[in-house]
Specification:
binds adenosine monophosphate, 22 strands, 26% strand, binds glycine, 5-stranded antiparallel beta sheet
Length: 429
């Protein structure tokens, strides 16, 4: 089959890489892709935010399956537009993508489905925000209601900063901001493939959203990830499926808005049990790079079965033993003002480290054909190994070989898990 992957990040490069290794896939094309994807597959220009353009391209290249990466494409209706042309598409409809596109809608679904999440209040004025902040108390959590590329959330001890963030969201036109209860405890990302009815989990992963070591600085799209989670209780995935994914997918179907694609369950494991922090309507970046690094069975049958409503007939995914760690290399100034256009070198040396592969995100070719940075997150350096420590050491050794002026990466990805993080309570009871 011919598969079109829509998007241009490290997530899409990982999807392309997995599909290229899949014996059931004859051709992989990507749009718009990046310089690394272009070295592996055909890339085509595309404005991913334009659903008609996505559908036109899928039809033009006679794709058998379209896999949509970015949320903006899904929220705008790329999957609807592709399906309207009679082409199978892995990704939810615009209506179903509101699970990510509107925090208020996600809260409504969770409430109807009895899914545990943080208590929250949706506010339309600063006066309401102040009232909600005072009713929950610090630390304060304030979220833009709509899509904000992982940067719409502020978690702070400062009431002044919390109010300033709400003011900024309302000033730039968001009709609503959500104020919610602070959730303590480690976070887990579980990607659940669904055809609207049947659900299949992938491996649980953890990502690192803050820009700096020790979880300091602003939130980013994600600075690194690892999977699976050596510290997690054995029944974690089963509990998330039972308490979160299955009821959510069932409620979406019941309310006439079936979710076909991947439900990204972002959870906090708190002393009071599992709580949903967020739902996303697509694979998480940088986590999926680690999950796919351990996928042993072919990817396309799973995505194709989900796209065609036949997931119950598909074999569940099989996994390699061991661990994967992704360390993101970001440009100078990321996430506030990323510097672009700087040369990137050392990739051949980095890729030669045992168990390592390098995926591209914000890279392009300058007019002279040199590899240069073109975005905030530039590369995902993925290390695999028999232990989490091996996987991390390999990734870190490779990261040190990459040369980009002023670039940044975190040095503590998976560090706590390696040094023996344990949970002092059972979140899955
Ligand atoms: P979101 O855009 O909802 O995914 O939030 C981004 C990040 O902000 C999450 O991954 C958490 O690290 C943090 N966050 C969001 N909501 C909460 C909460 N209620 N309590 C604590 N941290 C949160
Ligand atoms: N890993 C965070 C995200 O994809 O939103």
């Amino acid at each position: 089959m011919k598969v079109l992957v829509v998007g241009s990040g490290g997530r899409e490069h990982a999807l392309v890489r997995s599909l290229l290794r899949d014996p059931g896939v004859r051709t992989v094309a990507a749009a718009p892709g990046n310089a690394g994807i272009a070295a592996d597959a055909e890339v085509l220009p595309l404005d991913v935010s334009d659903p008609g353009a996505v559908a036109d391209l899928a039809q033009h290249i006679a794709a058998d399956l379209v896999v949509v990466g970015p949320e903006v494409a899904l929220v705008n209706g790329a999957a609807d537009a592709v399906r309207a042309r009679g082409i199978a598409c892995f990704g939810p409809s615009a209506d179903a993508a509101r699970l990510e596109g509107s925090k208020t809608y996600a809260k409504q679904i969770m409430e109807a489905a009895g899914v545990p999440t943080a208590d929250s209040q949706t506010c339309e004025t600063l006066a309401e925000v102040e009232g909600s902040l005072d009713s929950f108390g610090p630390p304060y959590v304030v979220k833009d209601d709509g899509l904000a590329a992982g940067k719409g959330v502020v978690v702070t001890q400062s009431r002044t900063d919390a109010i300033a963030h709400a003011e900024e969201c309302l000033a730039k036109g968001s009709p609503q901001v959500v104020v919610e209860e602070f959730l303590d405890g480690p976070e887990v990302s579980l990607f659940v493939i669904s055809d609207g009815t049947t659900c299949r989990p992938l491996l649980p992963a953890q990502d690192f959203k803050r820009v700096g070591d020790g979880d300091v600085g602003p939130n980013t799209g994600g600075m690194g990830a690892y999977c699976p989670l050596p510290w997690a209780p054995d029944d974690l995935v089963a509990a998330i499926m039972r308490d979160v994914a299955e009821p959510t997918i069932a409620e979406m179907a019941r309310s006439g808005n079936p979710f076909e694609g991947v439900l990204y369950c972002g959870l906090a494991l708190t002393s009071r049990g599992l709580r949903v922090v967020e739902f996303n309507c697509r694979f998480g970046d940088p986590e999926i790079q680690t999950v796919l690094a351990l996928l042993d069975s072919p990817l396309s049958p799973l995505l194709d079965a989900a796209a065609r409503g036949r997931l119950a007939e598909a074999d569940p995914p099989r996994w390699r033993s061991g661990f994967a760690v992704n360390v993101v290399i970001a440009s100078q100034g990321y996430p506030d003002r990323p510097v672009v256009g700087d040369p990137v070198s050392g990739l051949a040396e980095a890729s030669a480290v045992e168990g390592v592969h390098v995926l591209h995100a914000g890279t392009s070719r300058d007019p002279g054909g040199e590899l240069v940075t073109s975005g905030g997150r530039v590369l995902s350096v993925v290390g695999t190994g028999p232990s989490l420590a091996d996987a991390r050491d390999r990734a870190m050794r490779a990261v040190e070989l990459v040369r980009i002026r002023g670039c940044q990466h975190r040095t503590d990805i998976a560090a706590d898990a390696i040094s023996g993080l344990t949970l002092p309570f059972r979140p899955t009871a």
